[in-house]
Design a protein that fits this description.
The complex is a heterodimer of chains A (224) and B (79).
Chain A lengths: L2 E5 L6 H12 L5 E4 L11 E4 L13 H4 L2 H11 L3 E5 L1 H9 L5 E3 L7 E9 L15 E8 L3 E3 L2 H9 L3 E5 L10 E5 L5 E4 L17 H13 L1
Parallel strand pairs in A: 1-2, 1-3, 3-4, 4-11
Antiparallel strand pairs in A: 5-8, 6-7, 6-9, 9-10, 10-11
Helix pairs in contact in A: 1-6
Chain B lengths: L1 E8 L6 H12 L12 E6 L5 H16 L5 E7 L1
Antiparallel strand pairs in B: 1-2, 1-3
The chains are: A alpha/beta (224), B alpha+beta (79).
């Protein structure tokens, strides 16, 4: 699996994401790509947009990062069927670029939330979730102030009808519409999620519920 | 020349910050406050140009960056 992680000023989960990609690739080949690059390395399978506070969350979370030179290349990559995962701030960047629909608003109780919560796997029909079972409960940490997923009624209906809600919260911490914690693109190759699977991908981190996501991804890519 | 952009949440979009401000105002005894919506003001310093051209440019800036039109409205003022 040939992976790359995009780095913005203020990204802080970039290395963690590389470690998770490397662990399932079986080598340390994951490349780090600075946001000012206008093009991506050749031959990539998957791009990770990491968590953090890109550009200090100025203007709106992910707004400035979404307009950086590398994101045009990422958008083309996704349009051509490439795999992209955006976690936390990465999810916010993906909605700001329009690669995924909707928006992440401030948490309903205006608190920054940093804790491990329970997710329910809503679909196993994706390269990220096919190693889980449908409705499986998994423990994954969240760490965000803007995780309250919002979209218009039509978009929410489409996400549901097309089985594109990947994960929901079993005890909604942030007010997200329909308890949504993560969504898929139409072609199911782009995943955006607020919780951090890369922070639960090694026993030393306190759990491994996130590891199946990366393992499933590597398997899907190798067998594709 | 200058332009001022007002970015506000669309009606119906939950505004947790505005709600918190309302609670606080009520707690201070301002019982008349029934609702608060918080937005932002962005002031731009522009090179001189025709005001209608400026308004068009600033609207384009709003569409491309300054507002997220999924949840926000914007209004442009040329000063």
């Amino acid at each position: 699996m040939r992976a790359a992680v995009i780095q913005f000023p203020g990204s802080n989960c970039d290395r963690d994401l590389k470690v998770s990609f490397d662990a399932v690739s079986g080598n340390d080949s994951t490349q780090m790509v600075w946001h000012k690059e206008a093009s991506l390395p050749d031959g990539l399978d998957i791009i990770g947009i990491p968590g953090g506070f890109s550009f200090g969350d100025y203007l709106r979370c992910g707004a400035i990062a979404a307009r950086s030179p590398i994101m045009s290349a990422v958008k083309n990559f996704a349009d051509e069927g490439g795999y992209v995962i955006g976690i936390c701030n990465g999810f916010q960047v993906l909605t700001e670029t329009g690669i995924l629909p909707g928006v992440l608003m401030q948490n309903a109780d205006i608190k920054f939330l940093c804790k491990t919560i329970e997710l329910q796997v809503e679909t196993t029909n994706s390269p990220y979730t096919d190693r889980y079972t449908k409705h499986q409960k998994i423990q994954i940490p969240i760490a965000h102030h803007e995780g309250n997923y919002r979209a218009d009624e039509q978009t929410l209906a489409e996400l549901k009808d097309q089985d594109r809600i990947a994960f929901t919260y079993t005890d909604n911490p942030n007010g997200a519409a329909q308890d949504i914690a993560g969504i898929l693109s139409k072609n199911r190759r782009v995943l955006g999620m607020m919780p951090h699977p890369e922070r639960m991908a090694d026993p030393k981190l306190g759990g491994t519920d996130g590891k199946a996501l990366f393992a499933a991804l590597a398997e899907s890519i190798v067998s594709a | 020349m200058k332009a001022r952009v007002h970015v506000t949440l669309k009606p119906g979009v939950l505004d947790p910050q505005g709600e918190a401000v309302r609670h606080s105002l009520n707690a201070l005894g301002f019982d008349a406050v029934a609702g608060v919506r918080q937005g932002k003001v962005i002031e731009l310093e522009l090179s001189d140009m025709d005001p209608s051209a400026a308004e068009m440019q600033v609207s384009e800036m709003c569409e491309k960056l300054l507002a997220n039109t999924v949840i926000e409205n914007y209004a442009v003022e040329i000063l």
